[in-house]
Specification:
globular, 263 residues, Endonuclease Iii, domain 2
């Protein structure tokens, strides 16, 4: 090696050392992300779910001061996954692009139209298209629920396999059903399968909650939401729930939650 290259080499080495020290300093400022399984499911014991919630709130509070304030304002997290996967999908389909109040009324009428008020594939299979329309479902949604019911009964959609699959695999399976897009599948992940790291960037309640919490003039775009959500990993579901909670307080929803997929 030529002697005149040594000063340049020393400068490079010095810069590398400074970069490493800088990275270590930044790492010390960011709470260590816990390593958890992405397959937290409704079969998880209640005690374990409570521990997951507690760990999530501690992590989010340390990671993001604004999230900490939201957690303080909204209060304890009451999210508890519903083990009835089929019922949750039906609930999510009904909830698409309508108000909470309207969805409440339709689900109540749909229950009243089934034996024992049970939303099961077998019960809904007995309802013809006009009967589904009569409870307040739009023509497309009546078709979506019929398609879902037939797929579940025929095992084209095997609900029993979903808890064993990764999030994106679940979404891939669910969007094969007519009327189920990514948002509906994400609601399934949150409210039925109890997945802890879901970020529904197309959910209006979540978008408005983030806008309010962070003092944004305009609704944040999906990419901005993904960027803001990075520090919340692996507990983005709970961050989402608290943004929903803020939105709930702002719009004055004080009554008890009456459905699975609901603010």
């Amino acid at each position: 090696m030529r002697d005149d290259t040594l000063p340049a080499l020393r400068i490079i080495q010095k810069e590398d050392q400074e970069q490493k020290r800088s990275k270590r300093s930044m790492a010390e400022l960011i709470p260590e992300r816990p390593i958890i399984s992405s397959l937290v499911t409704t079969s998880t014991p209640a005690a374990s779910w409570a521990e997951t919630v507690a760990a999530a709130l501690t992590y989010l509070s340390k990671t993001d001061p604004i999230m900490a304030a939201a957690i303080e304002r909204v209060g304890p997290c009451t999210l508890v996954p519903n083990p009835n996967l089929f019922e949750t999908i039906v609930d999510a389909i009904v909830s698409q692009q309508i108000s909470v109040r309207a969805a409440d009324a339709i689900v109540a009428r749909l229950r009243a139209a089934t034996p024992g008020g049970q939303l099961t594939p077998e019960a809904l299979l007995t309802l013809e298209h006009e009967a589904l329309r009569a409870v307040g479902l739009s023509t497309p949604k009546a078709r979506y629920i019929r398609d879902l019911t037939e797929r579940v009964v025929s095992k084209q959609l095997d609900l029993e396999r979903l808890p064993e699959q990764e999030d994106e695999e679940v979404i891939e399976e669910l969007v094969k059903v007519k009327g189920i897009g990514r948002w509906t599948a994400e609601m399934m992940l949150i409210f039925a399968l109890g997945r802890t790291d879901v970020l529904p960037v197309d959910d209006l309640g979540f978008v408005e909650g983030v806008r309010s919490a962070y003092g944004l003039e305009a609704r944040p775009k999906p990419q901005e939401l993904r960027e803001r959500g990075e520090p919340w990993r692996p507990y983005r579901t709970f961050a989402t729930w608290y943004m929903w909670g803020l939105r709930r307080l702002e719009v004055g929803i004080a009554k008890e939650k009456t459905r699975i997929v609901s603010l």
